[in-house]
Amino acid sequence: MTYCVGLLLETGIVMLSDTRTNAGFDNVACYRKMFVFETTGERVVAILTAGNLSVTQTVIAKLRQAIARDDPEHSIMRAPSMLDVAEIIGRTLNDVHVAVNERMERTKYSASASMLVAGQRLGGQLRLFLVYEEGNFIEATDDTPYLQIGEHKYGKPILDRVVTPETTIEVGRKAVLISMDSTMRSNLSVGMPLDLLTIRRGEYRVSTRERIEAGDPTFSAMSEAWGNALRDGFLSLPG
Amino acid sequence: MTYCVGLLLETGIVMLSDTRTNAGFDNVACYRKMFVFETTGERVVAILTAGNLSVTQTVIAKLRQAIARDDPEHSIMRAPSMLDVAEIIGRTLNDVHVAVNERMERTKYSASASMLVAGQRLGGQLRLFLVYEEGNFIEATDDTPYLQIGEHKYGKPILDRVVTPETTIEVGRKAVLISMDSTMRSNLSVGMPLDLLTIRRGEYRVSTRERIEAGDPTFSAMSEAWGNALRDGFLSLPG
Lengths: 239, 239
Known about the structure:
2 copies of one chain form a homodimer.
Chain A: E1 3-8, E2 12-17, E3 20-22, E4 28-30, E5 34-39, E6 43-51, H1 53-68, H2 82-104, E7 113-121, E8 127-131, E9 137-139, E10 146-150, H3 156-162, H4 169-186, E11 194-200, E12 208-212, H5 217-235
Antiparallel strand pairs in A: 1-2, 1-10, 2-11, 3-4, 5-6, 6-7, 7-8, 8-9, 11-12
Helix pairs in contact in A: 1-2, 3-4, 4-5
């Protein structure tokens, strides 16, 4: 399992992913699920992946190959808009998904996958998409400024309560970390370390990028303070 | 969808269910999912149901029929222990589930269901079970003093943080209501009114029972105070 979340705020984008991958409980590994494609000052595209690792790795490899070949139709670094970037990723994801599942049909398994895609190109808008394995996608808006993939339920309530487009990047960063903390507590297949990046609007590059390791003291302190705030808030409730 | 939760505390049991049933988003209705069987001072059994309404209603009808017939093998009011009660309910649920799904197999639908069963008989222990459609069941313990059925993810984090066997019934009541509040905010197919009951250990009857209607001022105040506590706690976090 996986948990990835992206926020589209007035001042920029915040994206967070875990790194745990498992094929059954007895086969757990750590894989990066955050991928950045950047020409600094011109274009930045960040992709977070969830689902079957053979599907998502193949999609990323195909995207990289098209960039290396400077393929005008399939390179996300040449696409004229973020919408076109999302469409290229959607087509690639759907092609791989269909191909893998055709082979899997004989067994009883199926391989699903989805992706968060965020970025901005010079002269374009900062946008955040959720791309489905069918190749279609939805986009974050002012009404719903966040998107999630993977194990999204445990970490949703806090996002609903604190994230609006006016939220600052610093507060948004805290919100996605608390959302991830709730998810990791409830689902063992979501785990540290975490990858977090921010893209400030109009910078056309990754503004900050950090890996938060297990036992990170700042994250642990935040997690503990949140637990205390929840307990104290609960115990002081009326009714 | 449905959300039902039960707590097994040192002083008694707290059970809460919503009442919303839907067959598609355009066909929403209100059905009670909490059923009580009681011989005051001798035996009390409370059942909460989740899943396909045709399955759960048929199971409850069959349980009632066996009680009316005073069937020594199938009446949960004659079963010599709460374990036997859970077994009778498990067998009945599995029989109905299999029968309904055999007929449904020709379509692509399937009808799943599960139940929470709690109670105590004179001379026996107070126990809380989760009965699966396969007829098997698990029991709440000191390590995990709560059980949930239906849409369980949104409301789980608060239970994990505040419920222990030493929790009082009054605090447990608040905990299940906050857990339900989080669930209703995130899943439209879980909705008011709510049914809440408590069974104090050694009373062999339902100790309190209440229906909480939409707009209930005490529940609304608790929900609002919880929202404020979450936001305030979040905004004062370090990191």
